[in-house]
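sanity check this chain:
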Amino acid sequence: MTVWFATGNAHKKKELAEILAAHGCAFKLCVPGDAGLDFDPEETENSFHGNALLKAGALYELLRKTRPPLFADGDPIIADDSGICVDALGGRPGIYSARYAGAPGAEVPGARKLESRERNALLLAELGDGPVRTARFVCAMALMFGPERFFVSQETLEGEIVRNPELAGGTGGFGYDPIFFIPELGRTVAELSGEEKNTISHRGRAGRRVAAILGA
């Protein structure tokens, strides 16, 4: 059986494949690009779980319409929506994390998405020297077998934003990982090994629950 992952993000695919494998799921994980499919649905919901279900449903319909050689009826679909919620910014950028542009309402549909280093710099600049640095990563992960049969797991990873660019560290992970510090470990997420990150991360925690359902 093939498990389909509704993403075009190679980093997310790698992480999810490792998470599922670590919990005994030996399924082949495919993304739309593996079947030559263009997949970039507009994320119009106002919550992480809403966008995860939207993406899962969009891929469900696309696969049944195009029926690529890798696809078979009954293949489950996984989709996730994740982001960083910063307390001092009222929970922003939240669901707009990938489209963050440094100010409330600055997410322009169709505009060029900034590179990770640009978003990180903007976030640090917006926070400035503010004393409140607490934040959390959020991941909502949907597992869909059909429009009327699906499961959603939403998990978090608590931490704080580093106080300046010089404290950003690590070459692992992606996105906001270099500026997200975990006090209990004394390291940023980007300084963790892949195994360490997958054990504690928002995506790792949500993925464990999805893996348990797939293996049931």
About this structure: DSSP finds five helices and seven strands in the chain.
